[in-house]
Design a protein that fits this description.
Number of helices: 18
Strand content: 5-15%
Oligomer: single chain
Helix content: 40-55%
CATH architecture of the largest domain: 3-Layer(aba) Sandwich
Largest sheet: 5 strands, parallel
Shape: elongated
Radius of gyration: 27 Å
CATH topology of the largest domain: Rossmann fold
Length: about 450
């Protein structure tokens, strides 16, 4: 039989190893103890953490389960670790939904949709799969009446018995919405719902007053497409969509799964189980695959080649093209890629074909690698770039080429400012031409 000292050490080890809340009966069985003795040990451990000022832990009891958690006074410091800027495994939309459920539980999917202004079913499903949200019970109403709560896993992250004990700072672990105080939650959510409603109304009015402006920028790798597209979008006050990031993200997932990038059957199966999300804002684009952010992981030569390989498959092309077209239908956009103006959006308002000499493009990519601390040499980069150019321009489906009505831009020896000014003039000229076209009866 274990002594109290030995049992206490084993108990703490089990709780630490478990991480998530563990049932007392399960814990007693693992330790070969009676529930009564386990309760005594848990009480001793709880008091020890309360007395020990040097310990950052406390023992939390959640129904019939127990778990180690962080003392409340360390919450603000720990929030830096779990801030969305550092914790990048959930999209911003997921943070918003999780915060709404935590502060308003129980809620239905319809109520979340009312607050956010968009359908959030897929996000709720992902949160349930990750164990952060649970559906318990339903309302006797039509539609989607399931009642949503945050899970015990969520509570254990904060060492809470219920969300009634949730302090504002705690939600920083998942979302900046934690700045709301508990007593102001309902008012804040109502204000948010009203703001979303107003935005939707204004957007619908704007769409009636003017047409969507879509600018397509095509060209080979490292020609400067993305740099010009971002600057042009900023000058025109519209959003920029980096379509290449989509193929890079899918290529990276395939690499991590060890798939054959030329096997359409394998890639089709992967895409059937893939959720690709793109978040656009004035601060830039964030790319998520299955709820995990890939934004910082897709800018390597290996991923570039994987993107070229996987984009040659029709099933992958169609997957991304459908998303790109849907985004372009809803808002003004600047898009860059290799076949935007020829295949994805042949009716784009203005089209550009941006290129540069292979040697110039290879030098740019090589210098970019050095700045990131990556190893390699210029000759290999040039060889890979020429191979990718050949693959992209000779593929059967939507090869990289200049659209008949695209404006040719060579970035080899010209500055960004000079090029952007030229592109702005072309856009303004095209818009003026469109305004002067007489309307049909």
């Amino acid at each position: 039989m274990l002594s109290d000292v030995e049992a206490m050490a084993l108990l703490e080890a089990f709780l630490f190893a478990a991480g998530d809340p563990i049932e007392k009966t399960k814990l007693a069985e693992l330790m070969d103890l009676s529930i009564k003795r386990l309760d005594l040990l848990l009480d001793q451990l709880k008091r020890r953490y309360q007395i020990d000022v040097l310990s950052g832990l406390r023992l939390s009891e959640i129904k019939d389960k127990v778990a180690l958690s962080t003392k409340p006074e360390h919450g603000e410091a720990l929030s830096l670790l779990y801030d969305p800027k550092n914790r990048q495994d959930l999209s911003q939309a997921s943070y918003e939904v999780l915060a709404g459920i935590a502060y308003s539980e129980p809620v239905t999917r319809s109520e979340i949709e009312m607050v956010r202004g968009v359908n959030s079913d897929s996000i709720v499903t992902r949160l349930i799969e990750r164990g952060l949200v649970e559906q318990r019970g339903t309302l006797d109403v039509p539609g989607r009446p399931g009642l949503l709560y945050v899970s015990e896993q969520f509570l254990a992250d904060f060492g809470l018995k219920s969300t009634q004990d949730l302090e504002a700072v705690d939600l920083l672990m998942y979302d900046e919405a934690g700045e709301y105080t508990n007593e102001d939650t309902e008012r804040k959510l109502n204000e948010l719902a009203e703001e979303n409603s107003n935005v939707e109304h204004e957007s619908s009015e704007d769409s009636d007053l003017s047409e969507t402006v879509v600018i397509a920028i095509d060209g080979p790798s490292a020609a400067g497409k993305s740099t010009l597209a971002r600057e042009l979008a900023s000058r025109l006050s519209v959003l920029f969509l980096d379509t290449g990031a989509m193929y890079r993200a899918l290529g990276l997932k395939a690499l991590r799964l060890g798939l054959d990038l030329s096997d359409e059957t394998e890639i089709r199966q992967m895409l059937a189980d893939t959720d690709l999300d793109v978040e656009l804002s004035s601060d830039g684009q964030r790319t998520f695959v299955d709820g995990i952010e890939y934004t910082q992981d897709i800018r390597t030569p290996a991923v570039s080649q994987a993107a070229s390989d996987i984009s040659a498959l029709s099933v992958c092309r169609q997957y991304c093209v459908d998303l790109q077209r849907a985004l372009a239908e809803r808002q003004s956009l600047v898009l860059d890629g290799r076949d935007i103006g020829t295949y994805v959006l042949p009716n784009a308002t203005v089209k550009f074909f941006v290129t540069a000499r292979p040697e110039v493009r290879a030098k740019r990519r090589y210098e970019e690698m050095l700045q990131k601390g990556e190893s390699g040499n210029y000759e290999d980069v040039l060889l890979e770039m020429k191979q990718r150019d050949f693959n992209d321009s000779n593929r059967a489906l939507a090869p990289t080429k200049q659209a008949d009505d695209a404006i040719y831009i060579d970035t080899s020896e010209r500055s960004i400012d000079e090029l952007v000014e030229e592109m702005l003039e072309a856009v303004k000229k095209k818009m003026n031409e469109n305004l002067n076209v007489p309307k049909r009866d």
